[in-house]
Specification:
This is DUF1569 domain-containing protein. It comes from Cytobacillus kochii. It holds the Pfam family DUF1569. By secondary structure, the chain is mainly alpha-helical. It has helices at about 5-20, 35-45, 55-65, 70, 95-110, 130-145. The protein has one domain (about 5-145). Helix content is about 50%, strand content about 0%. It starts with 6 loop residues before the first helix and ends with a helix.
């Protein structure tokens, strides 16, 4: 499985982000491209331990069973629900969001698994650094495909 910790896949994701433009159109979902980039940055904040949303009651009951969805080989379903605190609905500056996300990804990669959060994911619960690395790649891949990349 691809992981954001692998430099080959980090470079692939950054190249795909660089191919986005402010005119990129979504193929599903509600967020525009700048909102999607902000959403991915907010998700990255969780993985980096800079944000720690509380566990949802549903996640407490079923998150552990559903956890492999986050890091297995299968693609994420279109229009999958998200953590409410990182659902972006307000307007964002495309260029700033693009650069912010790239910098967070580079920092996460440079910090390595040792600095990955140990705080539980709000739905899936406790994840290892390896699971976070795979899940981050998978999450970014999902959203880049949402915009045709």
């Amino acid at each position: 499985m691809k992981s954001i910790y692998d430099p080959v896949y980090l470079e692939e994701i950054i190249t795909r982000i660089d191919h986005l433009s402010s005119n990129s159109k979504r193929q599903w979902g509600k967020m525009n491209v700048a909102q999607m980039l902000a959403h991915c940055s907010a998700f990255q904040d969780i993985a980096m331990g800079e944000s720690s949303p509380k566990r949802s009651w549903l996640g407490i009951f079923v998150g552990n069973f559903a956890k492999p969805i986050f890091y297995n080989e299968k693609t994420l379903p279109k229009n999958m629900s998200t953590i409410p605190t990182i659902l972006i609905v307000n307007d964002r500056d495309f260029s700033k969001e693009k650069e912010k996300l790239k910098q967070k990804l580079l920092q996460f990669h440079a910090d390595g698994p040792e600095k990955c959060t140990t705080h539980p994911h709000s739905f899936f619960g406790k994840l290892t650094a390896e699971q976070w690395g795979k899940g981050i790649y998978k999450h970014l891949d999902h959203h880049l495909k949402q915009f045709g990349l």
